[in-house]
Amino acid sequence: MFLLFSRSILTITIKIIMVSSHDFLKDKRNDNIKIYINGKFYKRKDAKISVFDSSVLLGDGVWDSLRYHNNNFVFLKDHLNRLYKDAKLINLKIHLSRIKLTKALKKTIKVNKMKTDVHLRIIISRGIKSTPYQSPKVTISNPTVIIIPEYKKPDTRAYKKGLKLVTVNTIRGPINVQNPQINSLSKLNCILACIEANKKNADEALMFDINGNIATNNSTHFFFVKDNTVFTSTGKYCVTGITRKKIIELCKKNKIKVKEKNFKLKEVLNADEAFVTGSFAGIVPVNAINKIKFSLKNNPITIKLSNFYNNLF
Question: Are strands 163-167 and 282-289 parallel, antiparallel or unpaired?
Answer without folding.
Answer: parallel
